Amino acid sequence: MGKLRETLGLSELTERHGNIVWKSLLSEFLGNCILNFFGCAAIVKLGDYPHKNELISLAFGFTVFIIVHTLGHVSGAHVNPAVTAGMLVTGNIPVIRGILYVIAQCLGSITGSALLRAITPDSISSLQFGHSHLNPALKNAFQGMGIELFLGFLLVLTVFGVCDVNRPESKPTGALAIGIAVVVGHFAFMDYTGSSMNPARTFGSAVISGVWDNHWIYWVGPCIGGILAGLLYKHAFAAPATGIMKVTERYIAVAADEKELKRLDGKSREDA
Fold this sequence. Notes:
Keywords: Membrane, Transmembrane, Transmembrane helix, Transport. This protein is mostly helical. It folds into two domains: 16-241, Glycerol uptake facilitator protein; 242-272. The chain is built from ten helices and no strands.
């Protein structure tokens, strides 16, 4: 019974841990609100200037970078049900927290899209507020689902790589790497599916636009990709546990090598 409570995460809802959970949920809500507001704002076209995919791609990537860098210490800054799904199946978060995260993410996305709609002229079509749709050139919805699967896979694999506790050297650039993964995904497949990568982001846009065509692929694809990436990284690519002493020795060795190089460089100058 105790193991079941731990798996479900019932203990996190107690008074002792409840405050931490609510802070995490607020973080996920705010993160997705920011993502839909600023990311989708890059899609809205008010003037006659060319609509460039590069602008939209960078806007989403940099926004994710800011969110992860700012809120990562609070909730892990999943800001994406695909990331939460990957973390859930690998046992990094309990079931109840995972479900609450997805709810908070969806509510945040709706709020962000609604705020963007509220400050934008009524003449702008609601379809321009980040609505994800398939390119008619694709044969069927399953092609789109496959693309979103690979996008979710790339993103979650990156998240697991930079969050590996046995790779402390990856932490300083972790948020940047995640943001770049978002940019790469948009550069590659924005013309195919809109490069959602994020079910909650697409859900918020769908609620505001009222268009739900092929909406299921933006949930199924990224979440399956996220689950596959999480399981693959955990069972095949996770860095071996070295312990605090081994990690310390690694950096001491690097510092010692640098010191020796400086000594040799100084000696060679004296000999010259």
